[in-house]
């Protein structure tokens, strides 16, 4: 790899791809090399906006641009594993994987093992960890400003109407998408442990209330921590008519913190120092050309990716970290599949439904010539 710059290519030009392109451009030493999508108009649009070549076949893209160092896999969630494994095993490329990283725990294990054998790196995307409010609360917990955690609470109230799920065949499926918890709530599931530490047990109820889809659009759950702390989680995409909030609150023995806003971007309550609320809040609503819920974290993520190559600095989300979040996600589904019974997260099993194979859908998102 040339340390003068890190060359990144994108596979998948959906909703968040433009956000990646702008974040790459915001980082000195990181270069957008090419973009690829099976739908020519999508790839062509980003090509025109960012002045890079576009492709419909990523194999051709990689053959014509051997200088590519890292491939950002921004394809449907159920295709992450297949695409990442090909990038690692066939093309020898590092990979950036959008949430939820992989659909199943065993897929994550296989991908990291393949990357380790090839001397390559996997960079999971959890951009909300970079939010100023999240960083300040994590610091407060580490320094004891809030005392011992007593209650952790997550509340996501977003709107995804039927037309959202009708946009593509993979949406709203257990095989390639997952429901409100996997697609929209995964960052908040991650923050339950990023801030609160590892969760011991969960009990979850899931329902589909606002759309004609096979997955849940609503989940309500209770959770416990080894310390004795308890928590609650409410995630829905059945709110109407708009996105309302994505919040996380912590009740501690010395005080309380609440992070809210559209995407945990506002420090709304911080009893150790109320004056910290304003400087540690960010306005996502006016982000030009970006979805407000994506925030600014991808910029910092690409900065960390660059630093991992140039300075040897460890990327903040390692294998164990990504695996623990995925295991927690599956624990909620496993509980719901067993009538809301308590499920130990450390068991590490996968859901019976989430991420199961569906070749018919996968074939829609495979480059021609690779149908199975």
Number of strands: 14
Summed up, the helix count is 12
What is the rounded distance between the termini? 34 Å
The global form is globular
Poorly predicted sequence stretches spanning 5 or more consecutive residues: none
| CATH homologous superfamily heading of the largest domain | Dihydrodipicolinate Reductase, domain 2
Classification by helices and strands: alpha/beta
* CATH uppermost class of the largest domain: Alpha Beta
User: What would you say the CATH architecture of the largest domain is?
Assistant: 2-Layer Sandwich
The biggest sheet amounts to: 8 strands, mixed
Number of domains: 2
Instruction: List SSEs in N-to-C order.
Output: EHEHEHEHEHEHEHHHEEEEEEHHEH
Major beta sheet, strand line-up: 13-12-11-7-10-9-8-14
Radius of gyration from CA coordinates: 20 Å
How large is the share of residues in beta strands?
15-25%
Give the proportion of residues in helices: 25-40%
Mean pLDDT, nearest integer? 95
| CATH fold field value of the largest domain | Dihydrodipicolinate Reductase, domain 2
In words, what does this structure look like?
The chain is an alpha/beta fold and 372 residues long. The protein folds into two domains: 6-126 and 358-364, NAD(P)-binding Rossmann-like Domain (Rossmann fold, 3-Layer(aba) Sandwich); 128-347, 2-Layer Sandwich (Dihydrodipicolinate Reductase, domain 2). Helix content is 33%, strand content 20%. The chain has twelve helices and 14 strands. The protein has helices at 17-25, 40-50, 58-64, 80-89, 105-118, 132-142, 162-165, 180-184, 186-196, 297-310, 319-337, 359-364; strands at residues 6-11, 30-36, 54-55, 70-73, 94-97, 122-124, 149-157, 201-207, 218-224, 230-236, 245-252, 256-260, 266-270, 343-344. The strands form two sheets. Strands 13-12-11-7-10-9-8-14 form an eight-stranded mixed sheet. The longest helix has 19 residues, at 319-337. It is globular.
């Amino acid at each position: 790899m040339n340390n003068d710059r890190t060359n990144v290519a994108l596979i998948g030009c959906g909703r968040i791809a433009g956000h990646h392109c702008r974040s790459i451009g915001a980082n000195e030493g990181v270069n957008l090399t090419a973009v690829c999508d099976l739908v020519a108009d999508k790839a062509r649009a980003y090509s025109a906006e960012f002045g890079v070549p576009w492709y419909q076949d990523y194999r051709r893209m990689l053959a014509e641009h051997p200088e590519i160092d890292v491939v950002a896999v921004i394809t449907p969630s159920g295709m992450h594993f297949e695409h990442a494994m090909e990038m690692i095993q066939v093309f020898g490329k590092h990979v950036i994987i959008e949430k939820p990283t992989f659909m199943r725990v065993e897929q994550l294990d296989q991908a990291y093992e393949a990357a380790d054998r090839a001397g390559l790196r996997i960079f999971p995307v959890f951009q909300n960890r970079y939010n100023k409010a999240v960083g300040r609360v994590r610091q407060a917990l580490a320094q004891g400003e809030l005392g011992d955690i007593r209650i952790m609470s997550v509340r996501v109230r977003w709107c995804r109407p039927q037309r959202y799920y009708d946009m593509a065949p993979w949406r709203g499926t257990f095989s390639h998408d997952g429901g409100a918890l996997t697609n929209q709530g995964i960052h908040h599931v991650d923050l339950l442990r990023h801030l609160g530490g590892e969760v011991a047990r969960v009990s979850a109820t899931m329902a589909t209330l606002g759309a004609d889809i096979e997955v849940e659009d609503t989940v309500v759950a209770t959770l416990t921590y080894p310390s004795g702390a308890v928590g609650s989680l409410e995630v829905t995409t059945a709110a109407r008519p708009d996105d309302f909030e994505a919040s996380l609150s912590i009740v501690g023995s010395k005080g309380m913190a609440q992070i809210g806003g559209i995407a945990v971007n506002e420090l709304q309550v911080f009893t150790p120092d109320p004056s910290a609320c304003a400087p540690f809040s960010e306005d996502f609503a006016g982000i030009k050309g970006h979805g407000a819920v994506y925030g600014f974290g991808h910029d910092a993520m690409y900065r960390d990716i660059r630093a991992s190559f140039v300075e040897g600095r460890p990327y903040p989300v390692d294998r164990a970290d990504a695996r623990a979040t995925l295991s927690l996600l599956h624990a909620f589904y496993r509980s719901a599949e067993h009538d809301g019974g308590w499920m130990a997260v450390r068991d590490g099993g996968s859901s019976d439904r989430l991420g199961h194979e569906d070749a018919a859908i996968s074939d829609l998102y495979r480059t021609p010539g690779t149908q199975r």
